Fold:
Amino acid sequence: MTIGIVGAGQLGRMLALAGYPLGLDFLFLDRSADVPAAALAPVLAGTFTDRKLLRRLARRCEVLSFDWENISVPALRAATHGLRTRISPPLRALATGQDRLAEKRLFERLRIPTTRYAAVGSRSGLERACARIGLPGVLKTRRLGYDGKGQALIRKRADIAAAWDALGGVPLLYEEFIDFELEVSALGVRGRDDSEALYPLTRNWHAGGILRLSVAPWESAALERQARAHLRAVLRDFSYVGTLAIEFFVCKGRLVANELAPRVHNSGHWTIEGAVTSQFENHLRAVAGLPLGSTAACGHAAMVNLIGRMPPAAAVLAQPGVHLHDYGKSARPGRKLGHCTLVAPSADERDRRTRALLRALAVSLVRAP
Structure:
C-alpha cells in the first residue's frame, strides 16, 4: 500500500520511518523537494493548491493524509473525486483545525470547556470584544497561526490599536487571557473500524510560543479522566481516522481546551521511544485499516525540542539513555531542527535526567520539572 502525504516536513519524515517496517510505501507532495522527508521517499514539488499535482498524488496512492493543517480542503476534495483514494483524517476535521473560530464552536457544541471568545472583523469589533470579554485578552488570526505566530496580547485599552495594526485585515479571534497553571495535551487514535486507543496525558512547556519540553505520563487521575472524555467526544464527532491531539490549559483543577491538531503532533514525539506503539505508527495503522497498537507508556519519558541550532550530536548522545532525532534541516532562529528523548523507570529519575539534559543543551525553562 502507498500512502500519499501532503506536506513532507519532519512529521512526514517520521511517518515514513514508522511505516516502512509495516511494508508501507510513501509519496509526498510539498512546495520544495528540499524537505526532511525527501531523504526517505519521492516528493512531488509544487503548491498545495495545485489540483493537477494533487490529483497525480491521489491516483498513485490508496490513502491520502497530511502532516500539517494549512492545506486547501476544496483542492484535496477535488483531487480524489471519482477515485477510490481515501482521505484520512476526514476533511471536516482538517477544516476545523484550520480555523480557530470553528475549533471554539466545536468545543462549545461538545460541551468541552474553552475560553470565552469573539470573532473579530474590524477595529470597532475588536473594541466591542475587549469590552464584552474583558482585558487582558489575546487577539489571534483565525488561520495560519502556529508556534506563537499570528497573536497579539492586549493588556490594556491602549494596546488595542497596535494589535489591530499588527494583525488586522484578516479574520481574527479575540479570547480571554487565561492565567493557567500548566499546559497539557491529549493524544489519541481512532481506526477505520471505530476502535480507539488513547495515550497517557502529556505535560508541555512552551517558550516564545514554541514547544520546548514534553513529559509523559503526566499522572493526574482527575485530569486524565477529563482529557479522555473530551478526546473521545471529538474523535467520535468527526468519525475520525488517524491520530488527533488536543491542547489544554489546566485551570483550578479542570481542563480548558485551547486548540486541536488533526494530525500527529509535536507533543507526541516521546511516543517513539516511550510508548509500545508510537503516534506515527498508530496513525498509519489507522489510515491503512490495520489493528491499532498499544498506547501504554514504556516508563516515564521526556522530549526536548532542538530549536534554532543543532547541538553537536556527541553532546546529546553523551547523556545516558538519550535518543537523538535530527530532521536534516538548515539552521534558522526559531526553527524546529530536531528533538531528543529519554525514558526512565520513574518520574523522579526522568525529571532529574531531564534537568541534566536541559543544562547540557543550555535550554532554560520557567518552572522546569
Remarks:
- The first strand starts at residue 2 and ends at 6.
- The chain is about 30% helix and 30% strand.
- The mean pLDDT is 94.
